[in-house]
Amino acid sequence: MHDMSTEDAWTFLSEGTRTGKLATTRPDGRPHVAPIWFVVEDGALLFNTWHTSVKARNLAADSRASLVVDLQEPPYAYVMVEGDVEISDDLNEVRRVATVIGGRYMGEDKAEAYGARNGVEGELVVKLSVRKMIAKDDVAG
What we know:
This protein is of the alpha+beta class. The chain is built from 4 helices and 8 strands, in the order βαββββαββααβ. It has helices at 6-14, 54-61, 91-106, 111-118, and strands at 2-3, 20-25, 31-36, 39-41, 44-50, 64-71, 77-88, 123-137. Strands 1, 2, 3, 4, 5, 6, 7 and 8 form an 8-stranded antiparallel beta sheet that branches.
């Protein structure tokens, strides 16, 4: 096992269709983890969520979050980030981010349709600014 460089960690986060596992804290202190689709932009991770979802409510109350993205096959690897989020309901930005996410996970040919379906009133865009990053490669090595 060895540390990834910062550049390699950002590349890892941007490649393919790996799902992130987002950890938030409930108001009573219990943890909550949910899978998310996300994109990397300008040193941050962006994702959408519905305004009444558990993660949206948790992040509105406590802006701290952690996210893990992993390679689930040999040689295994992961990137874990911790940081704070900014939440926006700006419909243009919600739709833009939903479209970019749709392109990443559903394919460019379905990006616009995904963005139109998910970039709606009530949906939020969340920006996770990275405060700390741990990135390991060749975990099985």
